[in-house]
Every structure is written in C-alpha cells, then in structure tokens.
Write a structure and sequence with these properties.
Belongs to the G-protein coupled receptor 1 family. By secondary structure, the protein is mostly helical. It has one domain: Rhodopsin 7-helix transmembrane proteins (Rhopdopsin 7-helix transmembrane proteins, Up-down Bundle). The protein has 12 helices and no strands. The protein has helices at about 1-10, 30-60, 65-95, 100-135, 135-140, 145-170, 180-185, 195-230, 235-270, 280-305, 310-320, 335-339. α4 packs antiparallel against α6 and α9 packs antiparallel against α10. It is globular and about 65 Å long.
Length: about 350
C-alpha cells in the first residue's frame, strides 16, 4: 500500500511540471538579444583564453612557473566557455533543459569542477607571488617546475573528485523532500544542495581558499609598500625585478578580485538556499550563475589590458607569424618593460 501511494505521489507532477518544456514566455526579440549577448561572451571566453594558452605554450620566453599556473587557469576558463556555457545558454534562454538527465549531471559536474578548479589555481598563483615578493631568495628553490606540476595535480584532481562524486552519488540532495519528484517531473535540470553539502561547498570550495588568497595578497602588498620605499637604494637589477614582481602581483590581484566579485553571489546563494526552504527564484539563480561565468570572459581582457606581452603575442598569432620556424624565441618584452 505504501509503495502504491509513493508511486501515485511520483506520478503527481502538478507542482513541478509534467516533464515537458513549458512554452517560452520571452518574446523573440528578448531571446535574440540574450543569445547575441551570451554568444559574444562565449566567443571572448573561448578565443581569448585560447590565445593565452597558445601564447604561453608557444613562446619560450613565457615558460616560467607563474605563467604555467596562468596557462592552466586559462585552460579552465577555455573549457568552461567551450563545454559548459553553450548548453547553459540554451537552458537560460529557452527555460528548458533539452539534453537529458544523464548529461545534466555530467554538465553540472564539469561546471562545479571548473569553478572550484579556478579558485584553486588562483590560490596557487597567490602562493607563487607570495614567495616571489616576500621571500625572493627562496623563490627559485620553492617554486620549481616539479612543485608547479604537483600544485596543478591538486588543482584539478580534488575539485574533479568532489564534483563528480557529490553529483553522481546525489549526496547533495539527501533529505530534500520531493527532490525525486522534481527530477522526474521537471524539465530544467534541477540541482539543489542540502544544508550539509551546500555548507561544505561554500566553506571548502570557496570561503577557505578565498580567505587564504586575501591573506596572502594582504601580506604581499604590505611587503610591496616596504619595497617601494627602499627601491631607489637597490642595485639596478634588483630594482627592475622588484618592479616586475610588484606589477605581476597587482595584475593577478585584480584577477583574484574579479573572481571573488563574480562568484561570491552564486556560492553564497547555494549556501543560503537550503536554509530558506529553496525559495530562491530560478531566474535569479540562473543570473548569478552567468555572473560567475563572466569571470572567465573577463580574465583574457584583464591580461590584454595589463600585459603588453600578451597583446604582442596575440598580434603575432593573428598575423600567423607563429608558423615561422624559430619564431618561438622572439622577444615579447620591450626595453622599458625589462627595466
């Protein structure tokens, strides 16, 4: 009898929809505008980060531990733009998930993994800059290529194991009343975190690494101020290196700040939603998710604005000069930038 009643409850989709896509209430003009805007963001995300990947991979002068971390972070942003954002765009504009429940889980797992991977990369870059500026004598021994490889292994493996493990085990939904009915009846690829996993995701995947980054950059800029007061009394070679390290730290600090600004609202909503009986409107959550995606769009724009070498590398790529033999040894830095 209990089994029959449960089956009747599952079949009652009146509260959640009937599993088919509802009629889109947006006008054609609004949908065209949304598709155009999101397609533009996807284009910049994919090709901007691809340019960064090609630049650092191709030009020998850019083969440094810091740039290898930036390269891996650009791969993260590229994958988000190439594999995640197009499907999310269709879902957002059409108010429907057309791609099936299994692909829904795969899509969300990659989405979650890449978001956490980005913040782990930023944490690694903060550690790199900390040693470069606060402990410059130990930098070459601490931030070696093998160390960077181990950092990258952690940056990719831990978020991947967490995201795919939690999503495919459906541990995130334990105890959420009516979630099975929602999945069976909804056409929107619903993923709702319970209190335990929402808190775990926020603390372990966002708050802890963010606090670590803020602490490291606070120390970095405090030391940079001391260096600024003493910089004129240093030998020219140390003076030049300190200026370059300070500029790199400032640029990557801006990248970190943009990441926190873009992703904090989404992670905070995931934390609060189960404590508010999952009352967050779907359209708001969707908008916050896209605000997070735009971080991957902003990163190549930030690099292009603050790194003249990236603008030169991009120019050489567009002109096809990278297909010339031995061009990978080209100097991307002007005399002024090396001083």
């Amino acid at each position: 009898m209990a089994s029959f009643e449960a089956q009747q409850e599952v079949l009652d989709c009146s509260e959640y929809g009937n599993g088919s896509c509802p009629e889109n209430e947006r006008s054609l003009g609004v949908r065209v505008a949304m598709y155009s805007f999101m397609t533009g963001a996807i284009f910049i995300t994919v090709f901007g980060n691809l340019a960064m990947i090609v630049s650092i991979s191709y030009f020998k002068q850019l083969h440094t531990p810091t740039n290898f971390l930036i390269l891996s972070m650009a791969v993260t942003d590229f994958l988000l733009g190439f594999t995640i954002m197009p499907y999310s765009m269709v879902r957002s504009v059409e108010n429907c998930w057309y791609f099936g429940l299994t692909f829904c889980k795969i899509h969300y797992s990659f989405d979650l993994m890449l978001s956490i991977t980005s913040i782990f990369h930023l944490c690694s870059v903060a550690v790199d800059r900390f040693y470069a500026i606060c402990h410059p004598l130990h930098y070459c021994s601490k931030m070696t290529i093998p160390v960077v490889k181990r950092l990258l292994l952690v940056c990719w493996s831990l978020p991947g194991a967490f995201a795919f493990g939690v999503v495919f085990s459906e541990a995130y939904a334990d105890g959420i009343e009516g979630y099975d009915i929602l999945v069976a009846c909804s056409s929107s690829c619903p993923v709702m975190f319970n209190k335990l996993w929402g808190t775990t995701l926020f603390v372990a995947g966002f708050f802890t690494p963010s606090s670590m980054m803020v602490g490291l950059y606070g120390k970095i800029f405090a030391v940079s101020k001391k260096h600024a007061r003493a910089i004129d009394n240093l030998p020219e070679n140390q003076n030049s290196q300190m200026r370059k390290d300070k500029k790199a730290a400032k640029t990557l600090g801006i990248v970190m700040g943009v990441f926190l600004l873009c992703w904090f609202p989404c992670f905070f909503t995931i934390l609060l939603d189960p404590f508010l009986s999952f009352s967050t409107p779907a359209v708001l959550f969707d908008a916050l998710t896209w605000f997070g995606y735009f971080n991957s769009t902003c990163n190549p724009l930030i690099y292009g604005f603050f790194y003249p070498w990236f603008r030169r590398a991009l120019k050489y790529i567009l002109l096809g000069k990278i297909f010339s033999s031995h061009f990978h040894t080209t100097n991307l830095f002007t005399q002024k930038e090396t001083e």
